Amino acid sequence: MTEQGETGEAITILLVEDDAPTCWRLQDALVKAGYEVRSAGTLSEARSALAGGAPRVLLTDLRLPDGHGIELIREMRQRFPDTEIMVISALGDEESVISAITVGATGYLLKDAFPTDIATTVRDLVAGHSPISASIARFIVRRTQGAAQSSAEPPPGPALNTARLTPREIDILWGIAKGFSYAEIASHLGLSKQTVPGHIKNIYRKLEVHTRSEAVFEAVQQGLIKL
Amino acid sequence: MSEIAAKISAKAPTNAPTKAPPRPRRRLIASRLVPYLLLQALIVIATVLGLRLLQPSDPDDFALSGFSLQEDGVTNPVTLPHFTASRYSLADPPLYTGVFTFRRGEAASGWSVYLPRFSNAVEVAVDGVVVLDSRRDANANRPDRNTPQIAAIPTSLLREGANEITVRLFVWGPLKGFLDTVYVGPDAALRPAYETRTLLFVTLPVVFSAWQSILAVILAIMWLMRRHEPVYGVLAAAMVLGVVQAFAPPPVPPAVTSRLAAVLLASAPTESALIVVFGVLFFGWRWPRYATLLFVPGIVVFAVGLIGGPPLPRILFLVLGIPTVGLCLVLMACITATAVVRRQDAASFTIGCAVTIVLVCWIQDMLTVLEIVSNDRIFVSRLSYSAMLVAIGAGLTWRFARALNQVDSFAGQLVTRVREAEERLKASFAREEERARAAALANERTRLMRDLHDGLGGQLVSIVALSERGHEGATITDAARAALKDLRLVIDSMDDIGGDLMLALGSWRERASAQLRPHDITLDWRVATPQGLPLHPELRPWHVIQIVRILDEAVTNAVKHAQTRRIAVTIDTLDGDQGQYGVISVTDDGHGFAVSGHGEAARAGQTARGLRNMRSRAARCGAVLDLSSDASGTRVRLQLPQSFPDSDAAAG
């Protein structure tokens, strides 16, 4: 069985992970699911792998021996905007995931996920469904609350711009944080179940700060800078 | 009794400040009193000299002192100034007749007749035509005012050469009549001398009186606002009396209003008695009751004036009132001297000097009345007294302002102190907070260590044991997964969920689903209300960890022992007596197990231990665990408390 993209070719994945056992495990699960996987143990290996062309999916760890995965994500986002980017997340690592989201990641994968879940998550992402866990959702909505209370001290962790999220999107995040399924959220909010993943994808997009000029635009929008 | 008390209380402050044995004290008194008395002697000399120097000069070129006096039918030549006998009738007054020479050539301006001093009233005629009647001038009728009079002589009246001038002197006793030298000459030469005397003896008293009235109002207001300080009220009363005396029109004997006269006459002794009261109160002593006798002369003069005819109150005033004034001044001098010795402050010193000056003026007046000294019968005590009152009033106002400043600075100090106290409080609060935080951190650390030790530690040890014995990978995987799950639970519980248990359950659902998926068991998640569970602000991480472990245990049991295909988790909110409470149920569709009488499973020992653990965990959170099992499945019902307990009582 081979996973195929819209063009019919096999979906290529660049897996960047320095811990060999973890790397094998993920690679096994993905290859078994039919993906074409190239793996890299360091940032420079990943860069040289990219010389051969853009993968469909980048699956990267954040802590690498010769640098941080965030750099790779940022480069990837600029050079190959169509590539889906996933972060390999350890335990209780919501902050890193959020940091990755702000530079353009659209999904994450738990290191200890079951092999079937690994493949499912990648497949969902390629299909346009960004995964989001209760703890990530919780992290984001807490930031929206902090912004609303405009407390003097910013909460710890990466800077996160939640100003562009609509009330509906925040409601969806609350639902996810409380463990409701997409169907339950949809029925509570009077939505169609199919639209919820789209909303989540939008949330990811909105949390990303693309460029410096966009950051300035954001600041003006929020009234932080007066022109 | 009260006098003794007064004496004691008057003496008490004496001992307090010095606190020295008698001999040094006596020496102290002497060392303070002698310089003071010397200073007062100097002031007496200065006052006497000053009075001499201030004696207004008159244009002697135009003096007219040779007169013939026709009195009681007898005519005698007299030289002015001249005293006549005291009399009580205005009929047939003494008549002075004199001659002056007028030369038309000298008269660039008109001529005037100028009388610097007379008592009590005069009617002046030139060549038989009346040019001046002082009885119509209210000020001139006051014997204590030294009012001068001037009148222009119509030029048509004057003849070239000798002209006759007659002066009728009206006298109302008991004082003797007095007529100072009469001046007749060009108005331009006489007017300045007249103006000087008017300024000194008419305008200045009015200015002082106006000043007194203002001070009276100020002091009265102070007293009204501070009733416990009668000193202001007393001084205000004295000033009001003085002002009334100064501005009330004095009675002219032909139109006798004897009652008003009595009031005016009684004012001086009453005023002086009030000043003594003021002195006593001002220096902080108690007013001795017998000292009220000082007011008696004033009251007597007043009463006699109300009842008796015109001359009697005046006689009484002379023999009773004026000595009372003198007595009061002497008393005042003694009081201030004592105050100077005891207090050595500027206020007592100033008042003492002022009293000395007034006393000297009073003695001078007495000597004048008794004709022992001749100073043209100018009375100065009233004037000096007014000046003293003004000085005292100004001093009091100054003291009041200083007191206000002290209050201000006190308020400032208070503000500073409050700020300091606030700072200290803030610091101690910060310390306290720091300590509380440290304690909370220590608690949290302890809890975390226990949680890690309870779960993760044991699991890692069993992983080690399993791999050492060469077990199959699957068992090790299970143990490692359990360890990971536990680690995730501990980490999750660290997160602040703001009292919303649903946020913790949301994460748990994900983990449970992931755990069940390989076993092909469906996790049926049902939340009865859209809000989920009620909020618990008192919810702590250790509550969360216990609840999640109970749920984990329930699910694990169902997976291991019940051979179930579907596990349902139902989250519901029920209404209790004291509000809402949550209920979490975990139900499986397995074949169940027997629950013994004690509620402990009679199956495998491991399960029994698991159930016991669940119960104890529930008890620690104040929750109630209900377990029922039959052939159609097992149901674990966890009823959450309405309020989570604060301390982990059962933790041990």
Summarize this structure briefly.
The complex is a heterodimer of chains A (227) and B (652). With 227 residues, chain A is an alpha/beta fold.
Task: Give a quick set of tags describing it.
heterodimer; A: 227 residues; alpha/beta; Rossmann fold; Arc Repressor Mutant, subunit A; 2 domains; 5-stranded parallel β-sheet; two-stranded antiparallel sheet; 10 helices; 7 strands; B: 652 residues; alpha+beta; Jelly Rolls; Heat Shock Protein 90; 6-stranded antiparallel β-sheet; 5-stranded mixed β-sheet; 13 helices; 16% strand; rod-shaped; disordered N terminus
Question: What this model shows, in words?
Answer:
- Chain A has helices spanning 20-32, 43-50, 69-79, 94-102, 115-126, 134-149, 167-177, 182-189, 195-207, 212-221, and strands at 12-16, 36-40, 57-61, 63-64, 67-68, 84-89, 107-110.
- By secondary structure, chain A is of the alpha/beta class.
- Chain A folds into two domains: 12-126, 3-Layer(aba) Sandwich (Rossmann fold), CATH 3.40.50.2300; 134-221, Winged helix-like DNA-binding domain superfamily/Winged helix DNA-binding domain (Arc Repressor Mutant, subunit A, Orthogonal Bundle), CATH 1.10.10.
- In chain A, α4 links the parallel β6 and β7 (107-110).
- Chain A starts with 11 loop residues before the first strand and ends in a 6-residue tail after the last helix.
- With 652 residues, chain B is of the alpha+beta class.
- Chain B folds into three domains: 2-56 and 205-409; 62-197, Jelly Rolls (Sandwich); 499-651, Histidine kinase-like ATPase, C-terminal domain (Heat Shock Protein 90).
- Chain B is 56% helix and 16% strand.
- Chain B is built from 13 helices and 18 strands.
- A six-stranded antiparallel β-sheet of chain B has the order 3-2-5-11-8-9, with no helix packed on it. A five-stranded mixed β-sheet of chain B has the order 14-15-16-18-17.
- The longest helix of chain B has 88 residues, at 381-468.
- The model of chain B is unreliable at 1-20 and 596-603 (pLDDT under 50).
- The chains are: A alpha/beta (227), B alpha+beta (652).
- The A-B interface holds A 91-92, 112-114, 116-117, 133-135, 137-138, 176-181, 184, 188 and B 481, 484, 487-488, 491-492, 494-495, 497, 500, 502-503, 505-510, 514, 517-518, 525, 527, 530, 532.
